[in-house]
From TrEMBL:
UniProt subcellular location: Periplasm
InterPro entries the record matches: Multihaem_cyt_sf, NapB
PROSITE patterns: PROKAR_LIPOPROTEIN
Record-stated family: Belongs to the NapB family.
Source organism, top-level taxon: Bacteria
Residues covered by region (Disordered): 24-48
Protein name: Periplasmic nitrate reductase, electron transfer subunit
């Protein structure tokens, strides 16, 4: 008896839907093809820098591999508290539980000899801010935070300015206003 009622309800529902025209298949939407995009796109103006406005269903041509810069000069920071980038190649450096090649030059005891910046004092602190004699295990694997400098173009635009340049510009603007 119950199955018969369900069958009647289903038939009535099908009749109502067909009368409303909802049982028809939806018309496919016509979408214009994506415009041709170069290998690098335009990082300065593109919002979707990672996919370069290529639809998710389309295979993206990978960017060429970036070349490591070996200029031994420090770069500016791209955002506050950014770890410094590594200004030289580290191909073949061993950093594992037994050895850390970075510390050969950047340890506090040898930095002057190799004319390398010494590791920040924060790398010798444990999680309770207690100073250790050796580098902290939390800061031992350098490439966990620090990356090698390359010639890669940024994928998205970045207008970061550090506080020193902002204050310098503000002082210059105040001085110019005072002169008028």
């Amino acid at each position: 008896m119950r199955a018969r009622r369900l069958l009647l309800v289903a038939a009535a529902l099908a009749a109502v839907l067909s009368a409303c025209g909802r049982d028809r298949e939806p018309r496919p939407q016509v979408v214009a093809p994506a415009p041709e995009v170069g290998a690098r796109g335009n990082p300065a103006t593109d919002i979707d820098g990672l996919r370069r406005h290529v639809p998710i269903t389309t295979e993206v041509t990978p960017l060429p591999m970036a070349v490591v810069e070996n200029f031994d000069r420090r770069r500016g920071r791209a955002y506050p508290m950014q770890p410094p980038t590594i200004p030289h190649s580290i191909d073949g450096y061993q950093v594992d539980l037994n050895s850390n090649r970075c510390m050969l030059c950047h340890a506090r005891s040898t930095a002057a000899q190799f004319q390398a910046p010494e590791v920040s004092v924060t790398h010798y602190m444990d999680r309770n801010d207690q100073f250790l004699a050796e580098i902290s295990p939390r800061r031992y694997f350098c490439v966990q935070c620090h990356v090698v400098q390359t010639d890669a173009e940024p994928l998205v635009a970045n207008g970061f300015r550090d506080i020193d340049s902002l204050l310098r510009d503000e002082r210059a603007a105040q001085a110019a206003q005072a002169r008028q």
